Structure formats: structure tokens, C-alpha cells
Amino acid sequence: MPALISVETAVERIKTHLPDWGEESVDLEQVRSGILAEPITADRAYPAAHRIMMDGIALAWESYNHDQRAFKILGTIAAGEPKRTLTDPLACYEIMTGAVLPDGCDVVIPYEDIQISSEGELRIAEIVHDQAWQRMANIHPQGSDFNLSEVLLRPGVVLNGPAWGILASVGKAQVIIKRLPRIQITATGQELIPVHQPPQPHQVRISNPYALKASLISHGFPDVDLDYVADDPELMTAHFQQQTVNYDLLIYCGGVSKGKFDYLPTVWSQAGVKNYIHGVAQRPGKPLWFGVDHMHQTAVFGLPGNPVSSLVCLHRYILQQRPMFAQLTTDFEFTKPLTYFLPVQSHVSSDARILATPHPMKNSGDFMALAPTDGFVELPADRAIFKAGESFPFFPW
Ligand SMILES: Nc1nc2c(c(=O)[nH]1)N[C@H]1C(S)=C(S)[C@@H](COP(=O)(O)OP(=O)(O)OC[C@H]3O[C@@H](n4cnc5c(N)ncnc54)[C@H](O)[C@@H]3O)O[C@H]1N2
Ligand code: MOO
Ligand SMILES: [Mg+2]
Questions:
Q1: Residue 199: nearest ligand to its CA?
Q2: What is the pLDDT of residue 32?
Q3: Matching PANTHER family, A to Z (predicted)?
């Protein structure tokens, strides 16, 4: 293993060398998570016409302003009808939320403030609660949200609920997004057995791939397959050569440290993968390996096999989460010159601070210690004492 690099250098190298997996067009009907890859502009003014905001009556504000309070009702206008015209300023239309304001009208009085009476065919709306309405009250003016061609969403935004609603509103039936990587997670290790088999004392059930896949899915990477390869350089080489063609991101766990059976770094190098990281000054996760098979545009991560190490490395380096900040609730000490990823249980205080209670694990194989936690904080390498009340980057699971 070469000299250890810092967490910041590792993050920078990944950012620099991670392949660009291009773009793809998705159908609006396939709504899913993703990153927008094109600018989205307003296809017309929003709203496209003066839009009614309250069910009630539409009339000429000048008449109201001249103290007229009773208006003959000429008809009823629903949302979805083309624009009408009020020619008699002493009259009004009943009108519904979402309808287009008729020409000749410039105020809407809600039903709550009027009374309607009938004399034969004639129907009269009388304003009974006067709220000193201004011109255009209860009307959402044309173009008051956005003008034609204004940029609504920029490339790079995360497609969340509001974004998909905007895409639908502007008629984007097809949208260009960043292509998500096809991901395979491969477990390695002679000691591993499938989950449904009873383990002997020298065996452990394969658990890392399930934890990693769950985190990938919950952070917007749905396309994840699982696999296993034995600790055998020939099998590992064959596995890599086959899978680098099928996937964009190959995540292996285990087999990247200094052991006699940690073959993967050699296997990858001999298969032409350019190595950018092997060893980061951090705990857990020190033996982290990262490289790129430039011929196939495949990113290759070797996550250290200890379960807490692989999960922390996935979150810190592959998911590229933007951290929040959280305050420690108790003092914590870690004296080695390594960045320390400390599992924490978080909660939000009544004054809107995220509080992080440390749940240190005994070692990086102690996966069960993560049960009460919901993420980890990153404690810098150049300090040993971390005080209650201090804030640090917080990465939720
Ligand atoms: N001489 C040294 N030894 C070790 C060093 C070192 O710097 N010098 N680093 C240690 C650290 S730190 C870690 S972390 C581990 C990482 O080792 P590997 O990536 O080679 O992982 P393995 O040896 O294959 O496994 C380690 C441990 O994790 C368990 N494991 C692996 N895969 C799974 C899985 N899919 N599900 C559940 N558990 C898994 C495995 O059984 C081992 O117990 O190396 C240290 N050694
Ligand atoms: O860093 Mo290893 O990940 O301590 O167990
Ligand atoms: Mg090992």
C-alpha cells in the first residue's frame, strides 16, 4: 500500500477521475430519481391567463369602487372554459377557482362575502361583507410567476417532487437526465456463506452487499446487482474482465488490504485498471482502493471488507452526499492522526440544531453497533479532543 492520503485528497481524486456516464432520455411516465442534464424553460407565461384564486363572483372593480354592492348574475364560468367578456359593468359572473378572468372584470369577491337572491329568472349577488378589495384581488395575474422562456430548472438539479411537477407543467414528456451507473457489488472471501445457510464457527454470512445495496437505493441508485467471487486470482481476473463490460461501477468488498489472500489490487492493475487511491488516513476504511478501467469507462472501488468500513466508505466516497452539520452531545477523544468516522444517533433540537450522540463501535467488524445510529460524523485528523457542542459534517445513512 502506498503512503496514506487524506480524506480530502481522496474525495478530490474520485471527483477528477470518475468517468462521465453520459446522459439518457426518460419518459415523464417513468418518474424516478435523477439529476437533470438540460435547462428547463417556461413554454408560456405562468399563469398563461389571469387565473381565478377563489370561488365567487367576478365583476368590474370600478363599479365596486363606486359603491355598487348588488350585481345581476349573467352566468357561471367553470375552470377550463375559454375566456368570456362582461359587457355590463352592473352585472357579474359566478366564477370558479382556476377559471380565466373575463374581459371587463378585474376583481373577484368570494362566496363567503356575498349573498345570492332570486326573483324568477333574475339572480342577484349582493356583497354583504365588505373587505375593501383592491383591483385584481383574488386573481393570479398572467405571467406573475414566470414569463415565457424564463429558466425554471438548471442542469445539475436533483429531480425531486417539485422538479417533476415543473417538468409536467411545461409539457416535458421526455427529459434528459444524467445516466445512472449500472452497479454491481461483489463480495469476496472464503469465509463467507449465503445468508440461508447455517454458518460454522469459522464462517460468516455475507452481509455487506445488502447494506451497501440498501444505501445505494435509498440515495437514488436503483440499478444494483449482487455477486460473489472466491479469493482466487484467476477467478477474480475472469470475473472483472466479464463484469467491466456489463457495468459502469464495480464495487468489490474485502480483499484489498495486506493479507496473503488480498489479491484484488494486483488483479485490477494487471487487468489495466488505473489506480488512483490505495490507502486513506482514516478509520474505519484505511485500505480503500479506487481505480478506473478507462477502456470501458468503468469505475472500480475496493471497499475494505470490515462491514462498518465498507458502509462508511460507500457513503463518504461513492454516494457523494453533501453533508449536513451536527453538534456532538458528548465529548469524544480519538488520538490517532487519522480522520475518524464516528457513528451517531441524531435528533433535531427544538431550536433546530441537529444533535449527534456518539455510538462508537468496538472495531470496524462491529456492525451490530450501528443499529441505533442514523449516520456518522467526520472528525478531522489533526485533532484528538472533540468537545460537546462542536459541529462536524454529518452523513446520514
Ligand atoms: N497488516 C495489516 N492488516 C490489516 C490492515 C493493515 O493495514 N495492515 N488493515 C485492516 C483494516 S483497517 C481493514 S478494514 C481490513 C480490510 O481488509 P480487506 O479489505 O482485505 O477485507 P477482508 O480481509 O476480506 O475482510 C475483512 C473482514 O471483513 C469481513 N467481511 C468481508 N466481506 C464481508 C461481507 N461481504 N460480509 C460480511 N463480512 C465481511 C471478513 O470476514 C473479515 O472479518 O484489513 C485489516 N487488516
Ligand atoms: O479501517 Mo479498518 O476499516 O479499521 O477496519
Ligand atoms: Mg484482507
A1: 1
A2: 87
A3: GEPHYRIN (PTHR10192:SF5), MOLYBDOPTERIN BIOSYNTHESIS PROTEIN (PTHR10192)
Exposed / middle / buried, residue 332 (Cβ in 10 Å: 0-12, 13-18, 19+) = buried
Q: What is the CATH number of the domain that holds 164?
A: 3.90.105
Q: Do residues 343 and 355 share a domain? A: yes
- Cβ 292 vs Cβ 305: under 8 Å: no
The residue whose CA has the least distance to atom 8 of ligand 1 is 258
Shared domain for 227 and 308, answered yes or no, is yes
* DSSP-assigned beta bridge partners for residue 100: 51
Instruction: Indicate if 162 and 32 belong to the same structural domain.
Output: yes
- Alpha-carbon span 60 to 111, nearest angstrom: 16
CA distances from 168 to 23, 27, 140, 353 (A): 20, 11, 20, 36
In angstroms, how far is CA 45 from the centroid of its own chain? Answer: 28
| pTM of the full structure | 0.86
For residue 363, give the ligand nearest its CA: 2
Residue 16 sits in the same domain as residue 29: no
Q: CA 40 to CA 172: how far, in whole Å?
A: 8
Given a cut of 70, the residues of the chain with pLDDT beneath it are: none
Secondary structure (DSSP) of 147-164: -TT-EEE-TT-B--HHHH
Could you tell me if the ipTM is greater than 0.90?
yes
Q: Is residue 114 part of a domain?
A: yes
Number of domains in the chain: 4
Query: Could you tell me if 261 and 163 lie in one domain?
Result: no
Q: What is the Å distance from ligand 2's center to 341 Cα?
A: 11
Q: What is the DSSP letter of 317?
A: I
Q: How far is the CA of 188 from the centre of ligand 3 (A)?
A: 10
Indicate the residue type of 127: I
Please tell me the predicted confidence (pLDDT) of residue 33.
Answer: 84
Residues 271-299 pLDDT 10s: 999 999 999 999 999 999 999 999 999 99
- Do 191 and 204 contact (CB within 8 A), yes or no? yes
**Who lines ligand 2 at CB under 6 A?**
283-286, 304, 306, 309, 364
Secondary element (H or E) of residue 192: strand 192-193
Is residue 183 within 8 A of residue 223, CB to CB? The reply is: yes
The DSSP symbol for 226 reads E
pLDDT of residue 341: 98
Torsion angles phi and psi, residue 300, rounded to 5: -125, 120
- C-alpha cell of 382? 489533526
